[in-house]
Amino acid sequence: ILIHSWNLEMKKQTTVVITGFGPFGGVKENPSMLLVAELIAQYEKNGFNMFLPQENKDAKYDCKLVFKFQVLEVSVQDCNDMYKKYPVREDEEFIFVHIGVDAGGVKIKLEEMAYNNMSFRIPDERGYQPTESPIISNESMPLDFSLQTAVPLNEVINQVNYNLQEKFSNMLPLLVLSSDPGRFLCNYVYFCSMCHGLDIYQCNEVKPKKAVFIHVPPFSMMAMPTQLSVVLEAIRWIVFYATN
Fold this sequence. Notes:
Blueprint: E1 2-6, E2 13-21, H1 31-46, E3 64-72, H2 76-84, E4 92-101, E5 108-111, E6 113-115, E7 146-148, H3 153-163, E8 175-178, H4 185-194, E9 210-216, H5 224-242
Parallel strand pairs: 2-3, 2-4, 4-9, 5-8
Antiparallel strand pairs: 1-3, 5-9, 6-7
């Protein structure tokens, strides 16, 4: 975990948690893990400026921004352990940005929905393999109950594709919208992040938390430097829209 903060002399703190996943199943080198490692390396070199929209260096954030990075084991237990590090406080909000691989993907996708369903096609890295099981057992949230992120993803997508159109003109659109994150750990961590800090009986009533899941394709379908450019630009605008 790497932790850095941007103290803007505001009382309210917003913690941006950026995660990737480690190896699982037939994926020995998870692209999301390598992307997070590169984000950390660039962050150590360039600092907070890398997360400012390049077209709007004077952007104002009404909060103290804190960035944390983590690569998660592909297991329910490790995801659950992550949330223990981020207890809810009155003076702190969270933005979760999760990155995971879509082994059959071609484009980078922003997932707008998460579902109350664990149907793992393979066991997680600790051998757990639920089928048609709710993530949260609650009568008002039946199996496959959906939550939608509070971050305006269409705005993020439009900004990213517009800003990168000259550099990657032959690959547009680079970033697209999706509403199906699967029912494995990608969906699990996304659903949990949207419910983070809420009483389980309020999750279906309260506006979902500011969380976004980014699905990336294998590097064989889109090279790592291209993916890094898109993911970084997406994070810039996710943070911008989530704090304004």
